[in-house]
Each structure stands twice: as structure tokens, then as C-alpha cells.
Write a structure and sequence with these properties.
The structure is a single chain. By secondary structure, the protein is mostly beta strands. It has three helices and ten strands. Strands 1, 2, 3, 4, 5, 6, 7, 8, 9 and 10 form a ten-stranded antiparallel β-sheet that branches.
């Protein structure tokens, strides 16, 4: 089960260069239900996500590089490219800050995952977070993958 809140960003935090960063490329084979392939640095996954907003089922299956490359031409929509910074919070939570490249630039989103819905609902975001878009399907990556160039601006 995935429980997460998602936010737009007003400004980048000062300590970003000191945070761990991953390069992510992901594409969607289907958007209803969500079936995606992802390359995260040199790791590859096939992911299924159920419908939902703050709470949804998520299953990740490992792929080989060859299997990922075989599925790549089957992607429907744009191939999303982004840098993900992992920013630890004092509470033990981690902010996943996504800076989108290519067609979705200059979009920046932050996600925070929680163990319970209660914890998610009690979360107070840092000052540099902007609008809470948790309940907007517009900012699901599967929906963003269907956008045309320049549509995220």
C-alpha cells in the first residue's frame, strides 16, 4: 500500500546539493490501471498502481535492462525524465523532490510517503512547499505522461 501526499514547490531548499539524487526515466504501458516501466539509475522495474489519490496499492517487480529496453517502444505517451532528490526530515520521513526534464520542465513536485493515513493527514509541510495537489489527478505521473510538449508550463 502506498500512502503519500504530493505538493507543488514554491522554492528549492538551500541544502539540495548535499542530498542524494537519482536519475529516473519512466514510461506508461497503460494508464488505467497504471502499469509503468522505470529506470532508476541502473535499476529497472515494472510497477502496477491501483486507482486512488492519497492511498493506493502499488506493486514493483524487478526487470532486467534487456526487458526494460524491450518494453520501451511500447510506452504510451511521453517518456518522463526527472531528477529525484531524497531530502530527510527530522521526523524520519523523506521528501522525494522531483525536478522534471524535457517536455515537463520546469515542473517540480515533492512527494512524502507515510506509514498511515493518520500520519499523512497530520503532516505539516516545510515552508518551501507550495500547493497540496494530493487530491488532483492532474499531477499523477501517468496523467503527465499524456501531456504534449510545453503543456506543463
Amino acid at each position: 500500500m502506498e500512502i503519500e501526499r504530493k505538493f507543488l514547490i514554491k522554492s528549492l531548499p538551500d541544502n539540495l546539493d548535499s542530498c542524494s539524487c537519482r536519475q529516473i526515466e519512466q514510461g506508461y504501458l497503460c494508464t488505467d490501471p497504471v502499469v509503468r516501466i522505470r529506470r532508476q539509475d541502473e535499476e529497472y522495474f515494472l510497477t502496477y498502481k491501483s486507482r486512488g489519490l492519497m492511498v493506493r496499492e502499488e506493486y514493483n517487480l524487478p526487470l532486467t535492462r534487456e526487458a526494460y529496453e524491450h518494453l520501451l517502444p511500447k510506452v504510451d505517451g511521453i517518456l518522463i525524465s526527472k531528477k529525484r532528490y531524497l531530502i530527510p526530515l527530522a521526523s524520519g520521513l523523506t521528501i522525494e523532490l522531483d525536478l522534471f526534464d524535457k517536455e515537463l520542465s520546469p515542473l517540480i513536485l515533492a512527494e512524502v510517503e507515510f506509514d498511515t493515513e493518520e500520519a499523512a493527514n497530520k503532516f505539516t509541510p516545510p515552508e518551501w512547499f507550495g500547493e497540496d495537489v494530493t487530491y488532483s489527478t492532474e499531477y499523477h505521473n501517468s496523467v503527465l505522461s499524456q501531456k504534449t510538449q510545453g503543456a506543463a508550463n
